[in-house]
């Protein structure tokens, strides 16, 4: 039987304290960066991430009296060193190629060359930032939580904390709702997916930070100094392809990086001969792929069935629409999902109702409020206006152009209708979760395992 490991208070309190100190230093930087000149901002940024490394060293050496090697700072043997570098470069190249993929459809653009000071800053600060972030969030926080809880819990918590430190809390003050959504997806969610990817790589590498640091170094250089970028139709496409890039890195990590034999045998919970061990490992890999694809298929089927069932419940006289602009604020914010019910005659529409109609002055339908009604030959004519607009719509709306009136609304859910790329992002996220779930079946790295004769 496996031995249960109790949660040690120090293994939670110490990572929490290290995170709060690092988060406080970074928040102070976000607060005062706008008040500094560019060269001082660069210097402060280096100081902040230098303090990350100092705090990491103090917690490991002064507070715990442990070695840096225990938290990932150890060079592998020569053959493993070369292999680690090659795998790290391959992961970086795969991610870079995936995020550039939209350029083959929408075209590429050359980034303006940064000033010499900015170029030098990004070039020489990248290894410092990569080492500091991986040391704190993977080497210390993830490893320490995984040691006394489980690999899955440690990975999720450390990735969440990594996402929080990547989010500037002061950035939201000058953004509207749409800008806040874009910032959250492009920064917070992306950092969370990156944390998951790097944490899995760190774990599969036998708790060695060399590979993750090289990958982070490469990704920082790619994002800041890449001479070309892929054009897209919106930030959603960029977000989706970054998620796809992380999913590709997870798959490649599973394919190229094998746990040390002892850890892998714990993974299988068996003590067996080498030949039998390899057979079981290949069988387990095939099982993981099948499980991941099955989970994704079940999740996708469930979403489709729920959508079809919801539409069938509503009936043919009711359909869904989404509000794309702010013309109906404050009643309906952008991204609101509305349920529109058809009417049997003009008598069911009154002044004050919100209706959806087919507009002749733009391409598509409009959801606006009826502000006036008058009888006309051939039926009623309705004057409509957006609550947030200063003037009525340019043309009156005949009843035969009215699709229906709004009977119910759900805030924010309409973004899934307005942004199909976000639907793709959800599918990619489900796939990442499936692959990740099948990759983290190992017991605790310090737990005893039983032998089977």
Description of the molecule:
The protein has 453 residues and is of the alpha+beta class. It has 2 domains: 10-305 and 420-439, no CATH class; 324-411, Ribbon (Umud Fragment, subunit A), CATH 2.10.109. Helices cover 58% and strands 11% of the residues. It has a 7-stranded antiparallel β-sheet with strand order 3-4-9-5-6-7-8. α7 (177-204) packs parallel to α9. The chain is elongated. The two termini are 15 Å apart. Mean pLDDT is 81; it is low at 1-7, 264-272 and 442-453.
Strand order, sheet with most strands: 3-4-9-5-6-7-8
The overall average pLDDT, rounded, is 81
Q: What integer value in Å does the Rg equal?
A: 27 Å
Morphology call: elongated
One letter per element, helices H and strands E, the order comes to HHHHEHHHHEHHHEEEEEEEHH
Tally of separate domains: 2
Strand content: 5-15%
Low-confidence stretches are 1-7, 264-272, 442-453
- Structural class label: alpha+beta
Question: Major beta sheet, specifics?
Answer: 7 strands, antiparallel
Helix content: 55-70%
Q: How many E-type strands?
A: 9
Please give the alpha-carbon distance between the first and last residues. Answer: 15 Å
Q: Helix count, per DSSP? A: 13
